[in-house]
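Tokens as discussed.
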């Protein structure tokens, strides 16, 4: 699946890159545009949430160990040009602090991008607006011109018109262009997939997203508490091999 030619966005003498949004060969699963940055954020967020689970919990110990292992693998895979991009990104955030609002919730509301701290790491999470294709919208053949005004305008209504005319267009506001992290090469993606050993990198992202959501459920259920009804002796030994026979 990974070697199909239509997944290559560009073929260069030194590096090949996968085309974001192209089919992966798995139904409904498209090539991820920035799997490394996404996994770093998801894994760091999972580790941050796990701090609410007692350290003696086997659930926390197992998820923490696996997440840290995969996080280390992703961190060690650095795309070409990453150092230059990181320097520019840090400078951009420092010069435009008002454009990158700090938050602990990770919710991007009212801003195009926010700074989020997760497990000691700082991320810039972009707000991606969904593009609406007007061709997919229903149309009844009529043009919506708004409510019809009748009669003469009052002084109050005319003052509102003047006020609206004086307001500046929101599109005139300064927009800081955030450049996405450089892509991993096709060879780097394939190598990382081999190291993780859990399918395509897009599947790994899906698992990480599910694990992050699951932490909230496990915390709510308090899975570390003792069972109300204690298991009888030998209840969990059904499949143990009897060495005496």
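Sequence:
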């Amino acid at each position: 699946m990974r070697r199909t030619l239509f997944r290559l966005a560009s073929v260069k003498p030194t590096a090949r890159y996968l085309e974001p949004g192209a089919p992966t060969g798995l139904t409904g699963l498209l090539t991820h545009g920035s799997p490394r940055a996404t996994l770093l954020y998801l894994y760091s967020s999972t580790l941050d949430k796990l701090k609410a689970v007692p350290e003696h919990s086997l659930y926390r110990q197992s998820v923490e160990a696996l997440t840290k292992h995969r996080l280390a693998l992703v961190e060690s895979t650095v795309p070409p040009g990453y150092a230059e991009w990181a320097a520019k990104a840090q400078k951009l955030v420092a010069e435009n602090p008002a454009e990158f609002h700090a938050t602990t919730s990770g919710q991007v509301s009212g801003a195009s991008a926010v700074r989020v701290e997760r497990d000691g790491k700082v991320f810039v999470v972009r707000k991606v607006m969904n593009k609406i294709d007007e061709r997919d919208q229903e149309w009844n053949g009529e043009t919506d011109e708004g409510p019809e005004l009748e009669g003469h305008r009052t002084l109050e209504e005319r003052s509102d018109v003047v006020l609206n005319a004086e307001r500046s267009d929101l599109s005139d506001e300064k927009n800081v262009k955030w450049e996405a992290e450089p892509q991993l090469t096709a060879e780097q993606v394939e190598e990382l997939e081999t190291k993780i050993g859990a399918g395509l990198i897009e599947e790994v992202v899906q698992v990480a997203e599910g694990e992050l959501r699951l932490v909230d459920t496990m915390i709510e259920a308090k899975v570390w508490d003792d069972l109300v009804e204690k298991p009888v002796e030998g209840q969990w030994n059904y499949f143990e091999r009897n060495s005496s026979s």
